[in-house]
Design brief:
- The chain has helices spanning 2-10, 32-37, 69-79, 85-98, 108-120, and strands spanning 56-62, 100-107, 124-129.
- Mean pLDDT is 76; it is low at 1-12 and 29-53.
- It has a three-stranded antiparallel beta sheet.
- The protein contains five helices and three strands; from the N terminus they run H-H-E-H-H-E-H-E.
- By secondary structure, the chain is of the alpha+beta class.
């Protein structure tokens, strides 16, 4: 009967549906004027480099003998939308030459996601803070 206690707590005392109050929400962070003053742009996908140090992370493709050009060309475009199959092939060869290559620089949450999905796809990946931002 736990379901009934939840319904009784949030439902109407008249037995019918009751509208919940709209939660209060500070929308100042979405104010276009504030964004423009800060140099941001609402609704635009961020550039590869963020404006503040620590905001951006490098997603690394680490060379591995198990990687094939075909695997990298298949997985990377599926995981990172801005990477084409041709880009992925170039990244594969650069990782072979240098041992590691930067796939993309993005915010930490996206970097963690991309790296995790690359690993699930069979690629070696890691992230690290991007020290190249000003």
């Amino acid at each position: 009967m736990e379901h009934m206690s939840v319904k009784g707590r949030f439902g109407s005392s008249r037995g019918g549906p009751e509208l919940l109050e709209r939660p209060t929400f500070d929308q100042s962070q979405f104010d276009p004027l504030t964004q423009a003053e800060a140099g941001g742009d609402i609704g635009r996908v961020g550039d590869k480099k963020a404006t503040r140090s620590g905001d951006s992370y490098k997603v690394l493709l680490i060379d591995d003998e198990r990687h094939t050009e075909e695997l990298v060309a298949k997985v990377l475009p599926r995981v990172v939308p801005s990477v084409t199959p041709d880009d992925a092939r170039i990244l594969f060869h650069k990782s072979r030459e240098a041992g590691v290559v930067v796939v993309i620089v993005t915010v930490k949450e996206h970097a963690e996601f991309y790296a995790q999905m690359m690993i699930r796809g069979g690629l070696r990946s890691a992230i690290e803070p991007d020290s190249g931002t000003a």
